[in-house]
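note to self: dont lose this again. the chain is below, predicted strucutre after it. 154 aa total, dont forget to put it in the shared folder this time
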Amino acid sequence: MAPKPGLASSRGFALTFPQPQPKDPIWRFTGLEGLSMWMEGDELHAGGDNGSSHYLPTLMKYKPLVLSRPTSEDTPAMCQWVIDNMKNPMPRTGRVSVYVNEPKSPLFVIEFYDLVPVAWRGPTLSTESHVVASEEIEFVHRGFKFLTEKEKTE
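---
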């Protein structure tokens, strides 16, 4: 069954930085996990008969973003980029563009604030397995937003 037009599929995600540094690569990925947020809070019990409580929001939390793809000739450069950025962390804004039909305009773009790589996981290699070798890069961040059509082109 073919995917419906306008629906995101696993055709690709691209990670870019609006203010690129000289060694910043632009990577394409096939997997994206961790796009979630939640509000932590404190529960305040009401006095009197103790029949109710109130929830007081305190802190927005975000799961780490994990991007994955099959290994390629770019794997050593990606790993070295992560090493360099872990040794000298500089939180930056990053954008993940979600594509349906390559290389046309993205279906949507998600902007992440203070993105910092915290892990790289390489492939598990085995001559007994017929699984495609893949790699992952994990980022922590301080929040995200979906960009409007106007913001996508800025």
